[in-house]
Recover the amino acids of this structure.
């Protein structure tokens, strides 16, 4: 029996999230409401990622469009369905009684309802990243779903609840790790299943313990010592493992996840300063989510003053490091020198575009507010000798169309796990203060 095709109606935010989304619905048909094209027009100008997606989709639509785009639809390719654009529809009595405002969301909903009522042989599903619009659609009896193509399927497997702790571990092996620099071969380590990528372990028995790391290239488990990076010392095992990953030249891509106050950004910045002689420059950047929802142009001051409040948390971390030293010390003066020479730059992520990322220690803070496509765009621009670090808390997402499973940081951790040049550490214990830790757990 042939599989019954479906019809997917795409909302504007799906295309702004992934301009290639029309190719991700297998053999099913895709419908773009005319209102979506109208809305995309408003996003074409600008330097943000959503503006890029709007322009790219318009180019792609122009490339594949034909006379049938507004009627029977045009084929999307081998083993794919058809793409069509549906013109505006009158609000049904049910639509009028429930949603009286004539806004873009409701016009898209009217088209989805019309197709739902008139294409009885095919199941019509509205795809939108807007939770409220999904609820509105369901109130009319229209199936509605989130765009799931780039969502992480098993989040617990990706963002684990902590570092692997091996209780009652062989005492002789722990002693060997302390006495030898050679480490323990994977086959002798004693795990039933193979170790994937750069994994970290806490080894314990009744008399001793050790922190360990698996090198996927050498296939060796070796002891991890607590480092010092520009006056910053790790306060727990998770921070120790993070600093190890940040300072290991074999690892060129690092993801640090965890709640606020676990030290992610501070550790990344401290290790960057510690290794400055290995790199030409340090970039510490973060996305300004407000750019997508509120025009910064209305805020007072010049460009630097407008973005200042968004960058302040990064400067706060730098201040913590500076105040570990006397104002006349070479370490303190070195930071001022790096800032003056612009070898150390703290800037919005959008300002990095067009910059050379060769031989750069590149830290992206608040990466949970990036889409998977934005993460890919950033990483694919890495030049020779560049190390990239993405930090963030997937529990605190400011973007209205991202969640724990669809944000770029979770996506990165999922797709890259097991790779020889990638390490991921999930920090759990807060180290900001007892008050901050208590608030994070209880409030």
């Amino acid at each position: 029996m042939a599989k019954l095709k479906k019809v997917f109606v795409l909302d504007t935010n799906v295309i702004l999230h992934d301009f290639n989304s029309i190719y991700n619905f297998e053999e099913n048909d895709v419908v773009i409401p005319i209102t979506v094209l109208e809305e995309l027009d408003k996003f074409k100008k600008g330097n943000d990622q959503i503006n890029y997606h709007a322009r790219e989709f318009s180019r792609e639509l122009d490339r594949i469009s034909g006379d049938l785009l507004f009627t029977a639809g045009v084929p999307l390719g081998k083993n794919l369905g058809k793409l069509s654009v549906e013109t505006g529809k009158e609000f049904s009595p049910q639509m009028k009684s429930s949603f009286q405002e004539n806004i873009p969301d409701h016009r898209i909903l009217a088209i989805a309802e019309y197709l739902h009522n008139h294409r009885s042989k095919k199941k019509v599903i509205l795809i939108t990243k807007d939770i409220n619009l999904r609820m509105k659609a369901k109130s009319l009896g229209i199936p509605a779903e989130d765009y799931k193509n780039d969502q992480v399927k098993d989040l617990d497997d990706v963002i684990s609840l902590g570092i692997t702790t091996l209780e009652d571990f062989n005492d002789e092996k722990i002693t060997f790790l302390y006495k030898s620099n050679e480490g323990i071969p994977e086959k002798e380590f004693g795990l039933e299943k193979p170790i994937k990528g750069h994994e970290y372990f806490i080894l314990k028995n009744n008399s001793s313990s050790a922190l360990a790391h698996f090198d996927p290239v050498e296939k060796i488990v070796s002891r991890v010592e607590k480092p010092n990076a520009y006056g910053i010392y790790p306060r727990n095992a998770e921070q120790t493992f993070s600093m190890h990953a940040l300072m290991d030249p074999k690892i060129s891509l690092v993801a640090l996840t965890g709640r606020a106050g676990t030290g992610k950004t501070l550790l990344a910045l401290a290790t960057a300063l510690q290794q400055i002689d290995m790199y030409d420059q340090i970039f510490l950047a973060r996305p300004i989510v407000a750019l997508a929802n509120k025009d910064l142009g209305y805020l007072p001051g010049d460009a630097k003053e407008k973005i200042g409040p968004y960058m302040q948390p990064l400067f706060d971390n730098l201040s913590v490091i500076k105040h570990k030293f006397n104002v006349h010390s070479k370490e303190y003066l070195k930071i001022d020198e790096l800032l003056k020479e612009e070898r150390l730059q703290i800037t919005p992520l959008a300002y990095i575009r067009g910059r050379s990322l060769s031989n750069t220690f590149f830290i992206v803070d608040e990466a949970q507010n990036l889409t998977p496509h934005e993460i890919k765009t950033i990483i694919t621009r890495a030049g020779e000798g560049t190390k990239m670090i993405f930090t963030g808390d997937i529990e605190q997402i400011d973007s209205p169309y991202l969640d724990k499973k669809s944000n770029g940081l979770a996506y990165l951790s999922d797709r890259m796990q097991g790779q020889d040049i990638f390490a991921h550490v999930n920090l759990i214990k807060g180290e900001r203060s007892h008050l901050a830790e208590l608030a994070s757990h209880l409030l």
User: Anything to note?
Assistant: The two ends are 54 Å apart (CA to CA). The first helix runs from residue 12 to 17.
